[in-house]
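Morning!

This is the sequence you dropped in the shared folder:
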Amino acid sequence: MNINTALSFDAIEFNLGIDSLTSSKGISTGVLDPTKGMYWAWHSGFINLKLEGKSNLSTTKKQFFQFNLGGFRNGFYNLQTIQLNTKKSLQINVSVDIFKFLSSIDLQKENHIMTPSKHAVELAKKAVTMFSIKN
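The structure's back. Tokens below.
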């Protein structure tokens, strides 16, 4: 990413997920095309974070876990805004530490979320902690 050296900033901000206006429009094209596997249905919206895998901590039959976090309706609004403090630099590296997110979850008790819910919103808030600036 090229940065104009005349710019002054102390943070970057981005969203984890799709805003409610875009979600309410439904099926789209490009990266928002439903064939990409990140869209539930018109009433549920897009999956903002999909994390699936296998862990010996999971109590499911084959030790799988599945977290598909999303939703845009009132009460289940899953969009998270991430703000990271940074210094002006010609290059900014954003690090994603998935272990930080997974270690905040008891995979023996919770290992499967596939629909919008209050619990999905709680996990989406925890997911924000995965992101940091890597020096």
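Headline: The helical segments are 20-25, 98-102, 118-127.

More detail when I'm at my desk.
O.
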